[in-house]
Amino acid sequence: MNTESDSGEYVIRRGESGDDVYFVWEGEAEVCGLAEEEIRPEFLLKRYDYFGNGAPTSEKQADVIASSKLTCLVLPSDHCALLRPKSIWNANAGKEACAPVESILHLDPIEVNLFQGITLPEAPRFGKVFGGQFIGQAVAAASKTVDCLKIVHHLQAYFLLVGDYDIPIIYEVHRLRDGKSFSSRRVDAIQKGTIVFTLLASFQKEELGFEHQDAVMPLVPAPDTLLSLEELREKRIIDPRLSRTYRNKVAMSEFTPWPIEIRFCDPNTFTNQTKSPAKLRYWFRAKGILSDDQALHRCVVAYASDLLFIEVSSNPHRDRGLKISVLSLNHTMWFHMPVKADDWLLFVMESPSAHSARGLVAGRMFNRKGELVVSLAQEGLLRKARTPGRALRAKY
């Protein structure tokens, strides 16, 4: 069934009984809270947003007032379980059938503009919450609050504090702007009441326009001809060109498979204690088959973009016995065209500069057709590792 309201009419009043859920089909509505005995608009609901006492993001403590001619589709309470999908991308398959990275990026809606994510035991951690997890989950949270026809095309992320992988992460989405073609969001990741990560993202509806591409994909071996990380690890253990100490360390260290498959284009004998050029090229793709949703594919690419990225800035400075601390400070991405994250993408990166304890890395991603699909940049902290016992809460 559907319902229609004129501008200024109440659709739901604060504390009103009933468990139906309303989907905005045409028009707009304001969610109004009570501040100092005065009703004030808090945010605007637009097409495809939903509200109601039976929704996961309940509005029982707010009024919803039509701000224009409003048409809503009404979902009876018996079917409200449909609003609690197994995946934020509404995947029909259970967790066991999802690609590993899709499970890692899963979020639970807990209130309007609030989502909760966790760090799964099988997710990469690196001693802290992996930066790519922050980026991917934050973009997922923001994507859930925009018109489904708008897809992220740019993001700017700032890593403020080290994330604790033993506790949940709350993602709070701020709706900065909603236009006909573009929407803007800010997402704060919160742990223990403190913002540990923040992201700005812009979304755009698909639009025809001028096109050109000057960037040329470098000539590299096809991914099917290259070794996987597992195969490369086994080869390094028996490579006589590497020191016995290093080979023993590789053999004794626990190997945790990544949810992203990586194949290096230039396998070599460099280690974390030998100098190498400030460049890296590898093919990557998500393991498994992803749900067919461009928003998900861009979240996965954002997740994978932080793997080994800033480390490239430390390559020319490595030396035997020298320990280098590398931490991401900020991360920028531009999506130029649709991507398919479960098919091979070539990630080409180089570090043009390191100065004042900071390294800069620029990157490009190409699909197998040679199309430039993503451009990236990241700045990170680059220092000699501090002595034990001087733990820092902040990342800089």
UniProtKB/TrEMBL annotation:
Domain of life: Eukaryota
UniProt-listed Pfam families: 4HBT_3, Acyl_CoA_thio, cNMP_binding
PROSITE patterns assigned: CNMP_BINDING_1, CNMP_BINDING_3
InterPro entries in UniProt: Acyl-CoA_hotdog, Acyl_CoA_thio, cNMP-bd_CS, cNMP-bd_dom, cNMP-bd_dom_sf, HotDog_dom_sf, RmlC-like_jellyroll, TesB_ACOT8-like_N
GO molecular function annotation: fatty acyl-CoA hydrolase activity
Domain Cyclic nucleotide-binding: 1-55
UniProt record similarity statement: Belongs to the C/M/P thioester hydrolase family.
Protein name from the UniProt record: Cyclic nucleotide-binding domain-containing protein
Natural source organism: Chenopodium quinoa
Organism ancestry: Eukaryota, Viridiplantae, Streptophyta, Embryophyta, Tracheophyta
